[in-house]
Amino acid sequence: MVAEILQYFADNVRLKGGEADCIYAGMVMDTDNFMRKTGVRTFEAAAFLRRSGADVTRVHKLFRSDMAEYKARAEAVRHAEVYRGFALSVCPGKGLTSPTIVGAQAANELLNIVGVKASIVLTEYAGKVYVSARSIDEVNVQIIMEKMGGGGHLNMAGVQLECSVEDAMKLVRKTLEDMFKEGELE
After folding, report:
1. How far apart are CA 123 and CA 132, in angstroms?
2. pLDDT of 57 higher than 70
3. 54 to each of 12, 75, 167, how far by Cα in Å?
4. Which residue blocks in 31-66 are alpha helix, DSSP H?
5. What are φ and ψ of residue 58, in 5° steps?
6. Whole-angstrom distance, CA of residue 62 vs CA of residue 74
7. What's the CA gap between 38 and 29, in Å, rounded?
8. How far apart, in Å, are the Cα atoms of 50 and each of 33, 35, 36, 43?
């Protein structure tokens, strides 16, 4: 939106390279690397930013993880279990600066597996269990998370629980099973 406003605000708007990079990085994040919520206007705004000096390589480097985050995300994917089309996993958060973000990234990563309709990743942090739920198109994860006391959007939702990881996973499984029995999930 900012890029659209800037390109039509006045002629010859000049952005510094770093400014264009930041706006472009926001677009990359919001659109999941131009895979979701994109249209012609999105690509026109991206082209404007590239003409204004946004560097795709610099932006890509902004999104790199440190080794501990990468390993935690990989562990969550490695230990994921598929239950009726749902990839369920726990992301190890110990020693991470932002464990809840890494858990959400693992949930996104699990959607790349064939046969996975949605993913739910649990991350323990600061005495709570953070649940990140993601889907592409077949499942409304918002409804699932609302049943557990959380919320969100159709494809991205979550909840914070005050219990153990084991109890949180039991609640996730029970919620899914109840929804399957009621015909709320297929």
Report:
1. 8
2. yes
3. 16, 34, 46
4. 40-51, 56-62
5. -60, -40
6. 20
7. 12
8. 15, 18, 20, 10
- Helix H or strand E segment including 123: strand 118-125
The CA distances from residue 47 to 80, 107, 147, in Å, are 38, 30, 42
Mapped onto helix, strand or coil, the DSSP state of residue 59 is helix
> Per residue in 15-54, pLDDT tens?
888 888 998 898 988 888 888 778 898 898 899 889 888 9
For residue 122, which of 176, 66, 161, 71 has the smallest C-alpha distance? 161
Identity of the amino acid at 26: G
- Tell me the three state secondary structure of residue 124: strand
104: Cβ–Cβ under 8 A, 6 or more apart, which residues? Answer: 121, 132, 134, 158
Q: Cα torsion at 151, 32, 184, 128 (round to 10°)?
A: -40
